[in-house]
Task: structure prediction
Amino acid sequence: MIRKAVGAIVEHDGKVMLVHKVKGAQGKIKAMWDFPKGGIEPQDVTLEQALFRELKEETGSTNYEIMKRYDDKILFLFDRATREKIGFERQETTMFHVVYRGDGTDLTPEDDEIDEIRFFARERIPELLFPESREFFAKHVSLS
Result:
């Protein structure tokens, strides 16, 4: 089975938001930086609704504006342990380009999977992401 998910490349003042995921981490043990993203829930009527729910859960904020929905998706296979635990073989993440319209004071994770939210210069992003997200970022975002 395929797990459907949504995620966002969130920009603010020329920088890109990443969240520090400490739980879940696609079956990996160590914490990692990633774009805000997560699975689509049964109550989510649209992909956009799922995205705003995920952004609220992971960042505590609703101050976002969707600029575009990407045609490409981030695709990856779960490792065996994760497959057995969650019941999905792979994940297909629909990505959006989003602008954060807040001032930073409303950014507090509501989800215990996230312990930090930070904005990074675009050129730092590739070194922080795992391969599938890094490839998507390189294909869709200019570093200049």
Notes: The helical segments are 47-59, 80-86, 125-128, 131-140. Strands lie at 2-12, 15-21, 32-34, 37-39, 64-77, 90-100, 114-121.
